[in-house]
Amino acid sequence: MTPWRALFDVPEGGPYLLAHSAGALPHAARSRIETAVLQPWAKQGAGAWDDWLGAIDEFRMGLAGLLGGVPAEYCPQANVSGALFRLLSAMPREPGRDILLASEQSFPSIGYAMAALAPLGYRLELLTGDPADAASWAAAIHPGVAAVVPMHVHSNSGAVAPVAEIAALARGTGAASIVDVAQSAGVVPIDMPSWGVDAAVGSCLKWLCGGPGAGWLWADAAFTARAQPLEVGWFSHADPFTFDIRDFRYATDARRFWGGTPSIAPFALAAGGIATVAGIGVPQIFAHNRRLTARVANRAGDRWFPADRRGFGGTLCIRADGAAEAALAAAGCRFDRRGAVLRLSFHAYNDDAEADLVGEVLAGL
Fold first, then answer.
1. How far apart are CA 146 and CA 173, in angstroms?
2. What pLDDT, on a 0 to 100 scale, did the predictor assign at position 365?
3. What is the CATH number of domain 31-278?
4. 81 CA to centre of own chain
5. Which positions ≥6 away from 42 have C-beta within 8 Å?
6. Boundaries of each Aminotransferase class V domain copy (predicted)?
7. Between 20 and 30 A from 100 (CA), which of 86, 136, 243, 259?
C-alpha cells in the first residue's frame, strides 16, 4: 500500500479511480473546516471575518506555491466556467476582433460560457483539428481572434495541448490566451508564468482533492491591469471597506475579478487539499501515476491504449465496449464513462495492487 494513502479518506471497496472527477477527501481538508470556519464562527460571530479572510489568503498562497506566480495573481471563483466568463468579458473590445477560439474537444461548459458572450459582440469558433497539435491552432489563429482558450489536458482523451506554443501563436496575432487546467492541476507539474499565457482557470475538485465550489483564476499582472470586469462587488474594490457607493476602484491585483461577499468554506476546505498535494509533491504524484499506468500497460498490452503515454495527462482514457466496463465494475473498480471512452485515474492514494488488478481485468478480455 502506498504510504500516501493514510493522508486520505479513500472510499471503501475496490480501486477508487475517479481523481479526474472528484479526488478523495484529505484528512487535512476535514480538519480545516473545523479550525478555519466553524471555530471562529462559534467563538467570534461576525468577528470571524479576519480568520475567514485569512483562510482565503492561505488558499491563494497554496495555489501560488503549487502552480507558480504570486498570490496576488490568483482569485477565488465558484467554478471554471464562471471564472472564464469573468476573464473574457473583462477584456477591452478591439475593432475587428470578435472570435473566441476553443477546441470542439473542450469540456462543454467552457463552450457554453464563451457562446454566452454573444451580446458583447463575440462569437464562438471551435477548432476541429487535433488540439494536441500546435499546427491545428496555428491554422485557426488569425488577427480576427480575440482570445484562445485551450485545455491543458483534455477530459475525454487525456491528450496534452502544447500550451506554451499556443500562447506564443496567440501573442503573435495580438490575441489573449486563457488555459483551462482543471484536468491537470495537481497531477501534471505546472509553472503558470513560464507558459506565457495571459490567464488560467482551474478547479480544486479533481486532482487537488479540494472538494466542490473552489474554483479559481490566475491572471498575469499585465492582463489584470487592462481588464475591466463587468461583474463586480465590494470585494472587487481596491479597498472593500471604504463603503462609499460613489467611489468604485478596481482592486490592483486579481481580486478585481472576485465580486461580492465571498464564500469561505469551499476555499478553507480546498486549502487542506492543496496543502496535502503540495506536501506529497506534484512531480512525485506525476511519477507515481506514470508508474502505475505502466503496470497496467505491462499486463493489459497496447490493445487498450498507447504504450507511450508521455503526451497524455493523468487519466487513462480507453475505448472499450460494455464487456470491459462490466468486468472492471465487477472487480470493484470505480471509474466513469464518456461516450465510448472509459476513464480511470491513479492518484497518490492508489497502489500497485490496484494497477495490477486493472491490468489483469483488461488482459482477460
1. 9
2. 85
3. 3.40.640.10
4. 11
5. none
6. 121-297
7. 259
List the chain domain ranges.
31-278, 281-363
Identify each DSSP E strand in the chain by its residue range. 8-9, 25-26, 74-77, 99-103, 123-127, 145-149, 176-180, 199-203, 215-219, 315-319, 336-338, 341-345
What is the reported pTM? 0.95
**CA 307 centroid distance within chain:** 26
Instruction: Answer whether CATH 3.10.260 is correct for domain 281-363.
Output: no
Q: How many CB atoms lie within 10 A of CB 42?
A: 10
**Interatomic CA distance for residues 310 and 159, integer angstroms:** 10
Number of H helices, E strands in the chain: 13, 12
Q: Say yes or no: do domains 31-278 and 281-363 share a fold.
A: no
pLDDT of residue 308: 52
Secondary structure class of 344 (helix, strand, coil)? strand
Residue 281, helix vs strand vs coil: coil
For helices 352-363 and 322-330, the axis angle rounded to 10 degrees is 140
What is the C-alpha R_g of the chain? 21
Convert the pLDDT of each residue in 134-159 to its tens digit: 999 999 999 999 999 999 999 888 99
Other CB atoms closer than 10 Å to residue 332's CB: what's the count? 14
**Angle, CA of 221, 222 and 223, to the nearest 5°:** 90
Amino acid identity, position 301: G
Residue type for 156, please? Answer: N
Helix (H, G, I), strand (E, B) or coil at 358: helix
